[in-house]
Amino acid sequence: MSDIRVPSQGLSKFVVRADGFTTGSLSWQKRVGGKTMIIVIFVIILFLLAVFILLLPYILVAAAIGIPIYVTHRIIKQHRKNVAAAIWKAQRARRLTASQRYRERLTRTRLRKFNLSEKDAELVFGPRWRIKLRKKHIESNHGFFFDIIAIKTKLLFDLDYRKKILQGYTRFSIRSMSLIDSVILMIDSVFNEDPEIVRIYKKFMNENKYYKYYYENQWEYFKTHKKTAIDPNSENTFDKTEAYKILGLDVSATIDQVKKKYRELALKLHPDRNMTDTTQTEQKFVKVNLAYETIMAVC
């Protein structure tokens, strides 16, 4: 196959093949294509710049009007939010202050009413005595009433706590009554403050058959003697021989005999079966229980 060469007339040379196909110089194509692309991009940039220049006054006017409006709106909104927060905080502070004033008055009133100094209150209620004295009589599932019940229980059954109260002192140089008497007066006063609450409380506690005999009666005994009838150091504490004697048994009796005799005496002396002479029967009932506990502890 032969080639026919044709002059390029100053551009480049073409190669014409005998089969009719023509190819151009690759370098020429690259140069023409690159220049065309640059021209197109330049025209587009000029067009966009012209549009921007035409729209620039309108953009500036819109910005001059819109930006101050937006900034003003944000400032007003934030100001309203800050004012609302400040009002809420001030109202909350006033509520807390009023509540605190009420609690402080309640604390001072109770100290005077129960004849307690701050040192006395710390001995009776512990380091958190201010918080306890500030409580309302009943608050949901807690309150001053329930703290008084706890103190009453500790006086009856916690010997270390009772000893601390019996040896308690006051900062006042003159005192009309001892600390233990003031505590007893406080407990009875709180119980008499709301009879309906006390009625509900006793109804709930009476579900325990031993509540009346080991709690209420011991409290009445404690108010007179400043101890309970079942204290380890009381005159009702027995040795092994006395315990057997109270149950009417010999010292050589077996455990089964002791249990049987105890059940017989407990049924016989139970206060529910002896309504005529309640006080004497309860004292015997307590002695029988103490004697039985003494024997079982030894055995």
Automatic annotation (TrEMBL):
Keywords, ordered alphabetically: Membrane, Transmembrane, Transmembrane helix
Domain J span(s) in chain numbering: 242-299
Coiled-coil ranges per UniProt: none
Alphabetical list of SUPFAM superfamilies matching this protein: Chaperone J-domain (SSF46565)
Gene3D superfamilies: DnaJ domain
Membrane-crossing segments per the record: 38-71
PANTHER family registered for this protein in UniProt: CO-CHAPERONE PROTEIN DJLA
Protein name: J domain-containing protein
